[in-house]
Amino acid sequence: MAALVIEDTIPVRYESWQDWRAQKAKEAYERAHRPLVEPETIPCPTCWGQRRIWVAAANGEGLIPSICHPCLGTGRVRA
Ligand SMILES: [Zn+2]
To answer: pLDDT, tens digit, for every residue of 22-44?
Structure first.
């Protein structure tokens, strides 16, 4: 019997619940064995890997955190 599952608001059809289980187990295995940091990247020298930098507030009342543009908020750049 086919299985119909809603994933990210999109209905997805599997041939059987065993196929769905195998797919979920495969995704979990890939998640568990993914490297913690992307290979061939270094911490962003602008924000030091913090993902945000302090910029002057528009109203002139101090500094506010803003997304670091060189790394696009990831904290890492290509080596
Ligand atoms: Zn950065």
So the answer is: 999 999 999 999 998 888 999 99
Q: Answer yes or no: pTM beyond 0.90.
A: no
Query: Do 46 and 28 lie in a common domain?
Result: no
Residue ranges with CB less than 5 Å from ion ligand 1: 44, 46-47, 68, 71
Same domain, 22 and 47: no
Per the structure, the complete domain to which residue 21 belongs is given by 3-32
Cα 37 to ligand 1 centre (Å) = 15
- Candidates 53, 39, 35, 41; CA nearest to 77 is 41
Element (H, E) at 2: none
